[in-house]
Amino acid sequence: MKYAAFALALLPTAALADPITFAWSPNVQTPQVDMALANDYFTEAGLDVQLVPFASGREAFEALLGGQVDIAFMAEFPAATGALTGQDFAIVADLSRYTGSRIIGNAPIASAADLAGKRIGTTLGTNVDYFLSTVLKDAGIQAEVINAAPGDLVPALVRGDVDAIVPFPTFYAGAADALGDHYSELRPGGYAPHYVLSATPEMTDARAEELTAFLGALVKADADVAADPAKAAAIVSDNLEGNVTAQSLQAMWTDMEFGTILAPDLLDLLVDEGTWIAAQGVVKADAPTASTIAPYLIEAPLAAVAPTAVTLD
């Protein structure tokens, strides 16, 4: 696994009164949050962080837009939609990047060309749909794309209803178990999901000091994850109630890059996704540009605690 290390500026730890509602549930992508909670870094920073679980990042983002939470964790794709539709929010950090996106089949897939004319299941209107579209476009081929709910994709592949699937990463292990010797995968590259934090306008304005302290706690936890990934995996596994073992987590993390940053590749991805969303007609809007998306990435809070982590300019 890869880690990013940054110099952490010292901030005062005076108590800050109002609680911060944080839309986050235990997951495999954000060990720095688990570490910050385990080591009381939020409390040390004078923060009262209250966790609010959601079933998906999209739901967490909707809660943020509705003012139900202050900060939300999610993949970057809902943010691309939000920016395209002019919603009022900010991306304040990119916690991790996943480099293992794959297409799974029940027969060998040697290259993207093998997908031509095949029935491929995915969940339309999501980042995995975007990923599949880019793979097909880059290979210059067409396939029959079939919409299915995330939990229905692996059973459909096992039954033979489809020839391949593009599920969310949380379903990869289940697909391998269900297919056994028939499992095949293709990792074509080209798309790395980013797992980001979005915040309300109040957090980036009137409560900017608290947001900076919140991000400072995560940057501090980044160093702990880098120093002892085995301990981090044990803590995350415990928070996942043992549903994913520490050993399995460390294996998964070979495809993860951890580190709280804001970098140009996130901006580029949001522009490309926004262009794809507009072209699909999912949202009636003009294709975005870097200049229309950039204002949604707010640098100051993270730059205050980890100046070298922000490389957007």
Q: What top-tier CATH class of the largest domain fits best?
A: Alpha Beta
Number of helices: 14
Number of beta strands: 12
What fold name stands as the CATH topology of the largest domain? Answer: D-Maltodextrin-Binding Protein, domain 2
Terminal-residue CA separation:
27 Å
CATH architecture tag of the largest domain? 3-Layer(aba) Sandwich
Number of domains: 2
The global form is globular
Largest sheet data? 7 strands, mixed
Helix fraction, binned, reads 40-55%
Protein name: ABC transporter substrate-binding protein
InterPro entries: SsuA/THI5
Keywords: Signal
Pfam family, one: NMT1
Description:
There is one protein chain. The chain is an alpha/beta fold and about 325 residues long. The chain has two domains: about 1-100 and about 190-310, Periplasmic binding protein-like II (D-Maltodextrin-Binding Protein, domain 2, 3-Layer(aba) Sandwich); about 105-185, 3-Layer(aba) Sandwich (D-Maltodextrin-Binding Protein, domain 2), CATH 3.40.190.10. It is built from 14 helices and twelve strands. The strands form two sheets. Strands 1-12-5-11-4-2-3 form a seven-stranded mixed sheet, sandwiched between helices. It has a five-stranded mixed sheet with strand order 8-7-9-6-10. α5 (about 125-140) links the parallel β7 (about 120) and β8. α1 (about 30-40) packs across α9, α1 crosses α10 and α6 packs parallel to α7 (about 170-180). The two termini are about 25 Å apart. Residues about 5-15 have low confidence and may be disordered. InterPro entries: SsuA/THI5. This is ABC transporter substrate-binding protein. Keywords: Signal. It comes from Falsirhodobacter algicola.
